Amino acid sequence: MLAQFLQFLFSGLTVGATYALAALGFTLIYNASNVINFAQGEFIMLGGMLAVFFTVSGFPLPVALVLAILLPAVVGVLLEKLAIEPVKGAETVTLIIITIGASLVIRGLVQVWLGKSTFALPAFSGEEPIQILGATLMPQSLWVFGVTAVVVAVLWYFFNRTLSGKAMLATSFNRTAAELVGINTSWVLFMSFAMAAALGALGGILIAPITMTSYDVGIMLGLKGFVAAVVGGLGNGLGAVVGGLLVGILEAMGAGYISSAYKDAMPFILIIFILFFMPRGLFGGKSTDRV
Amino acid sequence: MALLEVKDLSIHFGGVKAVQNVSFSIDAGIVYSVIGPNGAGKTTLFNLITGVYKPTTGEIRLDGEAIHGKSPNELAERGMARTFQNLQICMNMTAVENVMVGAHLRLDRNLFKAAFRLPALRRRDAEVREEAIQLMQFVGLEAYVNERADAMPYGALKRLEIARALAMKPRIIFLDEPAAGLNPKETIEVDHLVRKVADAGITVVLVEHDMKMVMNLSDRILVLDYGKKLAEGTGEEIRNNPDVIAAYLGTHA
Amino acid sequence: MQKKLNIGLLIVIAILLLVPFIAPNSFYLDLAIRMAINAMIVLGLNLLIGFAGQISLGHAGFLGIGAYASAVLPTHFNWHPLLAMGAGALITGLLAALVARPIFKLKGNYLAMATLGLGIIINITLRNEAQWTGGPDGMPVLPMSLFGLEIYGDKQWYWIIAAMLVFAVWASQNLIDSPFGRALRALHGSEVASQVVGVDVVRYKVSIFVLSAVFASIMGSVTAHYIGFVSPNFADFFHSIELVTMVVVGGMASVFGSLVGAVLLTALPQALATFEGWETVVFGAILMGFMIFLPKGIVPTLAAKFGKGE
Fold it and tell me: Chain B residues with CB-CB distance to A under 8 A?
């Protein structure tokens, strides 16, 4: 009983950490630009696929991983410069459609370039499972937990203790006011997309040895990251992390105890319930529109 | 009995007390102005009375019936109309359609009758269109009837908002800075327009910075400062009120 | 204005009358039928997206409900196809209303999330309940019969669907130019302004969402009977996006834009057949390109260029 529960918990936390990173990406971009970036999932896919590509091409693992984070960050910046900035101030519907278009372009290009096959990335430090109270934990999961924890800590430090981070935060609260005190909000936008893409890619790399990767994994991973961000209250960084872990655990428990066939539906059932009963997410505040 | 009564009205946004314990009443048929420095809470007061915001505490009564906490569309049904300081025109529609929207509650909104183009509904719609065109003449916009709203100049849009509000056939109309951003000539036109609206028997509540216009039009004036009621009375009383003079010229004047 | 709208409708009727005589073979007639079906779905979706300014990323899910109601109920329970179609529409309407009520109190992004989630849940359910739906492989659909007569052949289907399309265009035009339609457009233009003139915005958003969902469901049923087969791809997320693309390309808030968008994007896969594998890229690029460079879509942009006609 306990062993089974732990097993589900481990796999839930592992995949949940990826959702958390994706949700942080959504949050960063949302705070900087009020855009829900439906292409966030494609950064996750890019991370995993590029990591595979570069390792197979003969790069040493660390180099391959760095490249697989940097390239998606460049793609993120391109997306912002070419598609988001030109339509500044557009309606929500317009922005949603643009990012959906971008996700199709990225996915389609990867499909044309690397094909439709499924790839596996070798685990970072072996495949010897660790036994804990009858449940098994893959070493890769430890990598996922560790790196996610470090990233969250670094982000916390960045936003609370550095000037650049505070500038980004200030922009999210009030763009005009931020501009008035001299913050370069265009730079903030640039940074947000770069960081969001890098975070997504990192999540994709970490999870690739466990779940495998292919050109089309981005849709579901991205959507679940979005669910996590909404669960945590759109725009709330801590909420995004908690939301990600929660969605991961719920999905694993649901698959284990209720029905594995409906595993992918669980996050969406959750989100509909949350929107029903807690419309601003678990950690979302109230807001009043000015007229 | 007064048409509109406001008692101990307050709203807090987090720690900010935008409106605090404001009380006043407005008799039917008069022009009542709300003045005060920027940030005094005038627009917030309008938003509270017209249901856009829900008060933290206090009461609002229209004809003796409590209306605080009701939604804007419920208040519209009770004959309350308003315009906005920042234009709220539907730019995706023509000018006359904007005015026709004002008649929303007086029309048959049934979806199926509309889809099947029932003659009764069409006839009524044509009548309201005529009415809207007349209203546009009333506010001086006859040249713009079939123009798209997004092609109209700012001054015309300000008056289009008034026409839309009048299309509701309201008992009381709240005008939030109808002359803001207008040139002197346009301001005088709006001044005359407000007078015409009041003469038509509609109670007018006005927020305006143009003091000449306020003094010229108002039967009574309410002065707000930092969300609180500073004074209330006729134009003459307000002009001579020491608190008001201090608030406008600085405490040590 | 009234006259102009009718000219548009007459052109649609003329084209629909001509197609069977100029279509060189049944391949083109089939294409025309699928264009017309998509045009009707897009008309409904455009009422929601273009006119009311709300989004649905799960419309294919509603289409799927209609299609599978028409597949499952006659096959497993011996229902008459028309009854099954009605049941599908009813289920869709109830589901849409149930979800919409709380969601429409919120703004754009949450709505996108909720509709998307609903679509995905429907799709997954259709894939998993194999004993009823045939699972990922789909299932055959019994033929449609009207007044005891079975509809068969592209010709018969064509005339039925053409008649439906003419009605749909006419009804949409009427709806837009009515108090109901004005309220919809007004809440898109300024939500707070429409509220203070008395528009119950949540009610209107819910009504138009339910209406367009039911429309999609009925079209799903029609498609199922016409093709004679259903599969979970009907309710795919990508299909939802395709429908949104048709709205965007043709022109948001434009009746004839809906038709143009549906025609172009139904033909596009045929045109892209030679670019094996590039379909997704092209689709995505079209979506982005239109939103950035031609945000009003084809028909409204042309209309603005050549005179003021709507």
Answer: 13, 47, 52-53, 84, 86, 88
**Min distance A51 CA to chain C CA atoms (Å):** 22
For residue A85, the chain C residues in CB contact (below 8 A) are none
- Asked if residue C8 belongs to a domain, the reply is no
Q: What is the ipTM of this complex?
A: 0.91
**Beta carbons of B86 and A291 less than 8 Å apart:** yes
* Cα–Cα nearest to A235, from A29, A5, A78: A29
Q: How crowded is residue B20: how many other Cβ atoms within 10 Å of its Cβ?
A: 19
Q: Is residue C36 part of a domain?
A: no
Find out whether B71 and B77 touch, Cβ atoms under 8 Å.
Answer: no
Distance of CA B108 to the CA centre of its chain: 25
Q: CATH code for A7-277?
A: 1.10.3470
Q: Are residues C167 and C126 in the same domain?
A: yes
Q: CATH assignment of B1-79+171-177+209-253?
A: 3.40.50.300
Q: pTM for this structure?
A: 0.91
Cβ atoms within 10 Å, residue B127: 12
Which of C290, C44, C308 is closest to C164 using CA atoms?
C44
Q: Give yes or no for C253 touching B (CB within 8 A).
A: yes
CB-based contacts of C192, cutoff 8 Å, min separation 6: A289, A291, B52, B72, B84, B88
The CATH architecture annotation of domain B82-169 reads 3-Layer(aba) Sandwich (3.40)
* Chain A residues with CB within 8 Å of chain C CB: 36, 83, 86-87, 90-94, 96-98, 100-109, 111-112, 219, 223, 226-227, 230, 234, 259, 261-262, 264-265, 267-269, 271-272, 275-276, 279, 289, 291
pLDDT at residue number A285: 54
Subunit contact B84:A291, Cβ cutoff 8 A:
yes
Angle at A118 between CA A116 and CA A122, to 5 degrees: 145
**C199 and C255, same domain (yes or no):** no
* pLDDT tens digits along A39-93: 999 999 999 999 999 999 999 999 999 999 999 999 999 999 999 989 887 888 8
Residue type at B163?
A
Specify the number of domains making up chain C.
2
Instruction: Say whether both C182 and C211 belong to one domain.
Output: yes
What residues of chain C score a pLDDT lower than 50? 1-4, 309-310
Tokens 């009381």 sit on residue: B172
pLDDT of residue C99: 87
**Domain-wise residue ranges, chain B:** 1-79+171-177+209-253, 82-169
pLDDT in tens, A25-38: 999 999 888 888 99
Among the candidates C211, C235, C259, a domain finishes at C235
